[in-house]
């Protein structure tokens, strides 16, 4: 998520620019605060236990592909299938005029199910995933799987939307001091990513 920081400038001209910067920051904070409220409203609707609202307890509808805050600080909801039908359902509990809808290929449920499947194969000796994949998760913004691998994806997944981090190349570059080390543990981030998203939104709200 893009962060905007206030900058105090000296001089008359700098002061004018500073006022504009403050105004932009206020608008950004308002948008991100609204995004947090909308996201929490969705989670509340989708959590069977209203006393325990979280990403981990939510039952996401099949039309939901994920959500994120774009570079303009607008809240984007990704939709699989008919945007009009999804918007009609969402309008029951959120103000759909305050969000941007984006059509995507995979639902959040599909992405997480595939990440969980690959994670299980990573723990099964002899599988391609166990031999080449170090971490798997969900790249929510790009509606894709996120896979750290030292090989190709043949025999790992048939999903077309995949964000690949080549750990073999990363390690080679790191040896020359040109890259950061890639994760080397057999983790599945499918449950962590949505939780991290809501924490980030909460922190954004607190900054405002």
Attribute tags:
208 residues; alpha/beta; 2 domains; 3-stranded mixed sheet; 17% strand; disordered C terminus
Tell me what the structure shows.
With 208 residues, the protein is an alpha/beta fold. The chain folds into two domains: 87 residues, no CATH class; 85 residues, no CATH class. The protein has six helices and seven strands, in the order αββαβααβββαβα. A four-stranded mixed beta sheet has the order 6-5-4-7. Helix 1 crosses helix 6. The longest helix is centred in the first third of the chain and has 35 residues. It is elongated and about 50 Å long.
Strand and helix layout:
Layout (H helix, E strand, L loop, with lengths): L11 H35 L17 E6 L5 E5 L3 H8 L8 E5 L4 H15 L5 H5 E7 L4 E6 L12 E5 H9 L11 E2 L3 H16 L1
Parallel strand pairs: 2-3, 4-7, 5-6
Antiparallel strand pairs: 1-2, 4-5
Helix pairs in contact: 1-6
Question: Quick gist of this model?
Answer:
42% of the residues lie in helices and 17% in strands. The protein contains 6 helices and 7 strands; from the N terminus they run H-E-E-H-E-H-H-E-E-E-H-E-H.
């Amino acid at each position: 998520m893009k962060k905007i920081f206030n900058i105090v400038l000296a001089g008359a001209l700098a002061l004018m620019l500073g006022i504009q910067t403050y105004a932009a920051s206020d608008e950004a904070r308002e948008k991100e605060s609204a995004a947090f409220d909308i996201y929490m409203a969705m989670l509340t609707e989708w959590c069977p236990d209203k006393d325990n609202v979280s990403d981990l307890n939510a039952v996401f509808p099949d039309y939901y592909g994920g959500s994120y805050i774009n570079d303009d600080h607008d809240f984007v909801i990704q939709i699989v299938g008919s945007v009009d039908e999804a918007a009609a359902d969402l309008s029951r509990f959120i103000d759909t005029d305050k969000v941007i809808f984006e059509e995507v290929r995979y639902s959040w449920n599909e992405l997480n199910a595939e990440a969980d499947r690959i994670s299980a194969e990573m723990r099964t000796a002899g599988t391609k995933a166990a031999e080449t994949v170090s971490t798997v998760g969900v790249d929510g913004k790009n509606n894709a799987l996120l896979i750290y691998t030292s090989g190709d994806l043949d025999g790992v997944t048939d999903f077309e939307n995949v964000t690949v981090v080549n750990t073999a190349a990363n390690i080679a570059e790191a040896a020359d001091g040109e890259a950061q080390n890639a994760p080397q543990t057999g983790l599945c981030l499918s449950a962590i990513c949505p939780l991290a998203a809501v924490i980030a939104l909460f922190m954004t709200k607190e900054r405002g």
